Amino acid sequence: MCRRRGRPPLRFKGILAARHSKGTRDGEIIIELWQRKTPGFVVHLSLNGESDAASRGALEDAMGWLEAQCDRVIGPDSFDDLASLLQYAQRQIRARAALRVLAGQALDAWDRDLSETD
Fold it and tell me: Rounded to an integer, what distance in angstroms lies between the CA atom of residue 41 and that of residue 13?
């Protein structure tokens, strides 16, 4: 089971194929790739406490979902003042930069390690 922000958890049966994590100034980034017992993959991303996950049939599609997450902004719906908005924006910029580095490493490893099993 993988938690997803604003949606029900993604439930599935599978095994953890790869896990990549990195501590940042604002929290931790975790990327997990699960191989489902039925054909397909689940990608789980936790970015400083905000989680999302997706189920994809092919490794290439799972990799594409992760790449798309690197440009997606996750944030609260409103801010009390301009200072909190600016602080949030700075955290997002740092988190996205760290996510892009970690995602690049994960995608390279998945491509190398898991494509050989196809």
Answer: 10
For the chain, the C-alpha Rg in angstroms (whole number) is 15
What is the CA angle 40-99-59, rounded to 5?
15
pLDDT digits (tens, 9 = 90+) for 76-109: 556 677 887 788 888 888 888 899 999 999 999 9
Rounded to two decimals, the pTM is 0.76
Q: Given the DSSP bridges, would you call strands 27-36 and 2-4 parallel, antiparallel or unpaired?
A: unpaired
The number of residues in the chain equals 118
CB burial readout 84-105, b (16+ within 10 A) else e: eeeeeeebbeebbebbeebbee
Strands (E), 1-118: 2-4, 7-10, 14-24, 27-36, 41-47, 50-56
Contact criterion met (CB below 8 Å) for 59 and 118: yes
58 contacts: CB under 8 Å, gap ≥ 6:
40, 41
